Every structure is written in C-alpha cells, then in structure tokens.
Amino acid sequence: MTRKVFFSFHYGNDNWRVSQVRNIWVIKWNESISDNDREKTWNDKKIKEWIDNQLKQCSCTVILIWKETAGRKWINYEIKESWDKGKWIVWIYIHNLKDDNGNQTQKWENPFDKVNIGETKLSNIVKAYNPPYKTSKDVYNYIAKNIENWVEEAIKIRNQYPK
Predict the structure, then answer these.
(1) Which of 24, 56, 62, 139 could lock 131 by a disulfide, CB 3.0 to 4.6 Å apart?
(2) Under a CB-based contact definition with an 8 Å cutoff, are residues 156 and 144 in contact?
(3) SS3 letters for the chain?
(4) What is the largest CA-CA distance in the chain?
(5) CATH top-level class for 3-158?
(6) Domain spans, the chain
C-alpha cells in the first residue's frame, strides 16, 4: 500500500541531506511511499497554507532531524498539526548524512521535547530512529533498509492515541 509522506525539516540547511532520504523512495521502492511537493519559499501565510494542504494529502509526517531542527517555528507547527490531524509521525536523525560540502554535523535536540500533548511531551510517545553508523553511506543504507518499517510502526503507535 502506498503511504503518502510529508517530510518536515529545516529547509535552508537540510535540503541536501533531506533530498538523499527522499530519493530512497524512487530508488528502492519505486514510490511505495510517496513524498510531498518540494517546499517553497513564501511569506508566512503562504507557507502555512502550503503545509496545511500538504498535510491534508498525507497519512504520515517524517521529521528529519539534525542540529538546527528543534524549536523552529514551522517544524513545531508541522509536528503539532500532524498530531492534531491524527497523522502518523516518524522521527529520524540525519546528522551523519553528508551535506553538499561533504560535512556531517552533530546530533542535537529532539524537537518533540518542545511539543506537548496535554501534559506529555510528544518525545515520550513518538519513536526516534538514530542510525547507529558514522559514515554517510552506512547511515543512508540503514535508513533505506528501515524507513518503510518505521512508517508502519508509527501507524501502530498513533493508533493508540485518539485524535
């Protein structure tokens, strides 16, 4: 079954790393999971409308995390809206994927620590996946091997919590 996925990430600095993860679908599963349109650069109203429209079409939000993801306005909005709309959420660390300059970065804060569902931090509900490798190629291969299962696991977790 095709799962429509919305990728949430820090657009300005993460685009290169994220494109690697997005391409996994095309290469590995021939679009067994499809992703959202490419993020655009607009004013706040237009960005919010775009996010809301993308989320209407998706069943799962994949948050791709590196050192500058946590606490960002649109990341927090995408997380909160995804949860409130009953979307499945997957969180994957991508700090060890190389950027366009061949650099890796450090692991950073969990953005789900900044979003609460009632009194509970979303980080206590949503599962995080941190590839256990240091080389970019191994990280990529680990994500490619596991991401489909992570999405399916997110469905099971989300189904435990009503909208």
Answers:
(1) 139
(2) no
(3) CCEEEEEECCHHHHHHHHHHHHHHHHHHHCCCEEECCCCCCCCHHHHHHHHHHHHHHCCEEEEEECCCCCCCHHHHHHHHHHHHCCCEEEEEECCCCCCCCCCCCCCCCCHHHHCEECCEEHHHCCCEECCCCCCHHHHHHHHHHHHHHHHHHHHHHHCCCCC
(4) 43
(5) alpha beta
(6) 3-158
Residues 115, 80 contacting (CB under 8 angstroms): yes
pTM comes to 0.80
Residue carrying structure tokens 């391409």: 23
**What is the C-alpha to C-alpha distance for residues 62 and 52, in angstroms, rounded to an integer?**
15
**Gyration radius of the chain over CA positions:** 15
Q: What angle do CA 112, 116, 122 make, to 5 degrees?
A: 40
- Per residue in 79-110, pLDDT (tens digit) is 889 999 999 998 899 888 888 888 888 887 77
The predicted pLDDT at position 142 comes to: 95
Distance CA 53, CA 35 (A): 13
- Structure tokens that stand for 124 in this block: 């206590």
Spatial distance between the Cα atoms of 61 and 78, rounded to a whole number of angstroms: 8
And the tokens for 81? 């809206």
* pLDDT tens-digit series, residues 103-155: 888 887 777 777 787 888 888 888 889 999 999 999 999 999 999 899 899 98
